[in-house]
Write a structure and sequence with these properties.
The chain is of the alpha/beta class. About 35% of the residues lie in helices and about 25% in strands. It has 15 helices and 17 strands. It has helices at about 95-100, 105-110, 115-125, 125-145, 160-175, 200-215, 235-245, 265-270, 285-290, 300-305, 315-320, 340-350, 355-360, 365-370, 395-400; strands at about 5-10, 15, 40-45, 45-50, 60-70, 75, 80, 145-150, 180-190, 220-225, 250-255, 275, 295-300, 325, 385-390, 405-410, 415-420. It starts with a strand and ends with a strand. The chain binds N-(iminomethyl)-L-glutamic acid and zinc ion (ZN). N-(iminomethyl)-L-glutamic acid (NIG) binds near residues 333 and 335. InterPro entries: Amidohydro-rel (IPR006680), HutI (IPR005920), Metal-dep_hydrolase_composite (IPR011059), Metal_Hydrolase (IPR032466).
Length: about 425
């Protein structure tokens, strides 16, 4: 008999998100079973059983067996933050006054602030300093219930050494902290000064010089691009993402964040795994995502922090059968927060998603957005034992009582890695 190393019993609300290892779309995005008096059994780093008490198998305990009482608790798959700009230097609180005075995100960028300011700060910091800064964010993300983080480069752009520095830090974070970091190459995050009048020339450099190096390096799984007015157009974004595929990277795209300039069509054309932001996505854009089988990775914390009250059309996406993932977009500019529970609540409040849809957005759909669905995103036999335990009787309570951290414990690969004080 397989020995159980960890058991969670008497769970008030267990949400396994069990089902196919595929994106949930349409009605299925919100159809999750809520089990009362649930049980989760773990053996080593894998789930042995997650379900109701009646069907739970009798088990033998390992010598180091741990029992957790789930009374009054909600238990879900470990949350997955599938879009962050985790590794960066410094911060940008100096932009708050400008923003409050009506200076827009793109205007700040045009003035040499915004992403350009983080580029300078990231270049100046050593790998160790960047590690110490990002470590705090990872610890915060874990405390909010996150067990896997996608992290993008993109604060080096034409300074390839800084891109690599970000990658090294992301890699080290995954090795030294109890979290998995999935890496995305995003040198095409802003136009370098010397290519201002010809961004396509920079894209050529990324294609011909950087992508072969990134492929040889082997640590990035995805390639992303900021397809936006004043940044990279749809044509250059498409060229880059097509080339990235030839180098073994799966395409992702920041699209329709500020203006709709054809990012969703590009996403569909290149068969991107996900398109990010989509704040200004039109009905045509939603149709393109659907046709292309693209996951909409929505970032409501960013909309909230932009302060203009405009959010991605999540309801239309769900109605039209586009799977929706939710992420923090944690970065020093447009969304400086690691609070994924707040982002889930904003998805409910401002995009009219149900708590169940939001939970699917940070579990199985987020796992699909980073191609980790075979091992993560639901609590099912054989999957990794990545589990979040909330000190709340049900998931609706977690979101309703907003702005505070409800995490009680986080289990990563079968081991408790966070416990609230
Ligand atoms: N919009 C592009 N990139 C980030 C913001 C990066 C920054 O402002 O530093 C985003 O996804 O929101
Ligand atoms: Zn982003």
């Amino acid at each position: 008999m397989t020995k159980v190393t960890l058991a969670i019993e008497n769970i008030s609300e267990l949400i396994t998100v069990a089902g196919e290892n595929a994106p949930r779309m349409g009605k299925a995005q919100g159809e999750i079973e809520k089990i009362k008096d649930g049980v989760v059994l773990v053996s080593g780093d894998k789930i042995l059983y997650a379900g109701n008490k009646e069907n739970a198998p009798k088990y033998e305990k390992s010598d180091d067996f741990v029992l957790i009482d789930g009374t009054g608790k909600t238990v879900t798959p470990g949350l997955i933050d599938s879009h962050t700009h985790l590794v960066h230097g410094g911060s940008r609180e100096n932009e708050l006054d400008m923003k409050l005075n009506g200076v827009t995100y793109l205007e700040i960028l045009e003035r040499g602030g915004g992403i350009m300011s983080t580029l300078r700060q990231t270049k100046e910091m050593s790998e160790d300093e960047l590690f110490e800064q990002a470590k705090k964010s990872v610890e915060r993300l874990i405390s909010y219930g996150v067990t896997t983080i996608e992290a993008k480069t993109g604060y080096g752009i034409d300074d390839f050494d800084t891109e690599m520095k970000q990658l090294n830090v992301a890699d080290r974070l995954g090795k030294e902290l109890p979290v998995e970091i999935v890496k995305t190459f995003m040198a095409a995050h802003a136009i370098p000064e010397k290519y201002k009048s010809n961004p396509g020339e920079f894209i050529d450099i990324v294609i011909n010089d950087y992508l072969p190096k990134i492929e040889a390096d082997g640590r990035c799984k995805f390639c992303d691009v900021f397809c936006e007015k004043g940044v990279f157009n749809a044509e250059d974004s498409k060229r880059l993402l097509e080339a990235a595929k030839k180098h073994g990277l799966t395409p992702k795209i920041h699209a329709d964040e500020i203006e709709e300039i054809g990012g969703t069509k590009t996403a569909a054309d290149v068969r991107a795994i996900s398109a990010e932001h989509l704040i200004k996505c039109s009905e045509k854009g939603v149709d393109e995502l659907k046709e292309g089988g693209v996951i909409a990775n929505l970032l409501p914390g960013t909309s909230f922090n932009m302060g203009d009250g405009i959010f991605a059309p999540a309801r239309l996406m769900i109605e039209k059968g586009v799977p929706v993932a939710i992420s923090t977009d944690y970065n020093p500019g447009s969304c400086p927060t690691e609070n994924i529970q707040l982002c889930m609540y904003l998805a409910c409040l401002n995009m009219k998603m149900t708590p169940a849809e939001a939970l699917v957005g940070v579990t199985i759909n987020a796992a699909c957005a980073i191609d980790e669905q075979d091992k993560k995103g639901s609590l099912m036999e054989g999957k990794l034992a990545d589990i979040t335990i909330f000190d709340a009787p049900n998931i609706n309570y977690v979101l309703y009582h907003f702005g505070v951290n409800h995490t009680d414990k986080v289990i990563k690969n079968g081991k408790a890695v966070y416990e609230s004080k």
